[in-house]
Amino acid sequence: MNAPLSTLVLLNNRRPIRELPEELISQIAAGEVVERPASVVRELLDNALDAGTTQVTLRLLAGGVRLIAVEDDGAGIPAGELPIALKRHATSKIGSLAELESVGTMGFRGEALAAINSIADCLILSRAEGQSNAYSLDGRTGELKPAARATGTTVQVKELFYSVPARRKFLKTDATEQAHCVEAVRRHALARPDVVFAIWAEGRLLEQWRACGIDEAAKTQRLGDVLGADFIAQSVAVDYRAGSVRVSGRAGIPDAARSRPDQQFCYVNGRFVRDKVLTHAARSAYEDVLHGQRQPVYALYLEIDPARVDVNVHPTKIEVRFRDSREVHQAVRHALENALA
Question: What residues pair up with 21 in beta bridges, in sequence order?
Fold first, then answer.
């Protein structure tokens, strides 16, 4: 029996199985990690916060396509570790499976810098604590040379997607991409009221939020600074504990509901997440007081044993999986119901 023509064509054109080159591997990984400029901003802010920064500055040109620069005053990177920082699966965050299963840092996969460097021109300028001077690393050439900088790190990302021009076609206008970058900073700022955040675009200061501490009052102040005084005036405090889960933050009163879910913020151990369990729990708590398609507003902070939540679900680290999702769902629902009662 003769084989179909399509099968013969495939056999004749069969390509051998082979290992992909490192650069192509990184570019494929970048497809998951870097969707748009805001993805780069998120990853760089994660690194800055993990480094213990007290002040972060973001600078943008053309919505982040021409330039994304994140400057921090954290611990810095020793000169000898700078070339390693741009390699795939290189990280200072974890070193074993046990550490992965109870990770407490924002980043841990060791993929972001390598992925970003594969689709943009990257420069890292860093001075580690106790180091006599700073060093800069050119991500394209690998050149490492002395530079001037105070303790901390600056990462510059220029011409995003220059090596994969097809990806640029999927980006929106500069204004839209800039708005997404600002939103990425807002999400981090709401979780870290103890850190100063500043955003510059086209040489102009867009936003600046000063540090205000780490207690509940500081969280409330930062919520007001970022989301506006109306959010505080039209919301109630949330503070609830059930077993190993603590839920705090603020929940908007029914009259504060909006047509879009653009003021719904959920954090798990300081990490902004999008999770169906949390969203459904919040919606359930409002079901008797909100009707139609009106969307509640809230900023909820969950504290849970890191070993009871898996953050290694997706390269973007924005999704999580709870060991006991029913426990978390009930905690969030009861926290909101009690606050709104």
Answer: none
- Bridge partners for 134 per DSSP: 147
How many CB atoms within 10 Å of residue 222?
24
Contact by Cβ (8 Å): 165, 65? no
Best-predicted range by mean pLDDT among 59-73, 87-101, 163-177, 284-298?
A: 59-73
Q: What is the pLDDT of residues 159-215, one digit of tens each?
A: 999 888 878 888 999 999 999 999 999 999 999 999 999 999 999 999 999 999 988
User: Within 13 Å and on the Cβ side, how many CA atoms surround 9?
Assistant: 3
Tell me the pLDDT band of 296, cut-offs 50, 70 and 90: very high
Structural domain spans, the chain: 23-209, 216-340
Relative to beta strand 196-201, strand 55-61 is parallel
CA 34 to chain centre: 11
N-terminal to C-terminal alpha carbon distance within the chain: 75
Residue 158 near residue 121, CB atoms below 8 Å: yes
The arrangement of secondary structure in 23-209, i.e. its CATH architecture, is: 2-Layer Sandwich (3.30)
pLDDT at 240 over 70: yes
d(C-alpha 158, C-alpha 105), whole Å: 26
Q: Which residues pair with 128 in a beta bridge?
A: none
- CATH assignment, 216-340: 3.30.230.10
CB count within 10 Å of CB 341 equals 6
Global pTM value: 0.87
In sequence order, what E strands does the chain have? 55-61, 67-72, 121-127, 134-138, 144-147, 152-158, 196-201, 204-209, 235-242, 245-252, 264-268, 271-272, 298-303, 309-310, 321-322
